[in-house]
Write the structure tokens for this entry.
Amino acid sequence: MTARILDGAAVAAGIRARVAGRVAELATQGVVPRLEVILVGDDPASRVYVGSKARACLEVGVRSSTQSLPAATTGEELAARIEALNGDPDVDGILLQLPLPPPLDGRRFLDLIDPGKDVDGFHPRNVGLLQQGRPAFVPCTPGGVMELLDASGVVLQGAHAVVVGRSDIVGKPMAALLLQRHATVTVCHSRTRDLPGVCRLADVLVAAVGRAALVGGEHVNPGAVVVDVGVNRVEDAALVERLFPGDEGRRAQLAKRGYTLVGDVDFTAASRVASAITPVPGGIGPLTIAGLLLNTVRAARQRRGLPC
Ligand code: NDP
């Protein structure tokens, strides 16, 4: 079997067009949504992510700016910055880019963000609302996965979904969203016994682990839908050749940049067994950004008492 490719980039383009329409409609009421991003320190990957988010905002007509703070920012300074944005009526969404440089503890500062401006959906209030199946800001990556599954016609009701990974950012909210849609959900983590055996029970398998190609063909139930959330930089030429045999594009990328991006799934092996699979890159990454745009427009509407 050769799996159908689930084209996250195409679905994300559709969402961006939908958001642009909603932004245009809001503009007729004099509202232009505004997202403020706080970036602390100079983690290169974070800079790239923040840049992509800013560009995506610009493209759909959402105002956005980034407040870049030095790595030596104190907890008090960061807290004051968040409080100022909470109190600014012109700000609809606040995004604190993670990870924070030590000793700053991300969770402490996420807790300070006004839940009504929490477009990442990480505040405990939104986490609780999501668990209860009530309207909430849904974390962007699992929200994006749901958009992709729906756009691809994947039936969730009654299906067995296995999520590998239990982080607050991806695994747990992913499980909550799948459960809400009446899937039977199993969550795996680093202490799960017989990971391949549990994964093989899945009709829908979501990998969010952060280990390049951990999920191989032996983890996949024949005909399953495989969603690969992972993004890992791989620099080892032998590993790249094993994962993508004869792939000139990958070889060229490795030679040019010194790395290539690989998911948590061994794409070549898994796509021989799955019925549908997301690629990396071009799978979930673009949907995460689209999810952020959806949440920002939602925040702008909600704060003005407009229906969401
Ligand atoms: P975390 O490191 O926070 O969580 C990883 C999870 O994987 C943990 O629950 C951990 O278990 C589990 N795990 C680790 N090793 C194993 C193993 N050998 N077997 C089974 N489970 C294991 O990662 P995130 O959830 O933040 O991110 C996961 C991946 O998704 C990363 O590659 C990240 O880059 C990517 N990502 C991609 C995004 C996108 O836009 N495409 C957005 C966000 C993340 P335990 O809890 O027991 O430690």
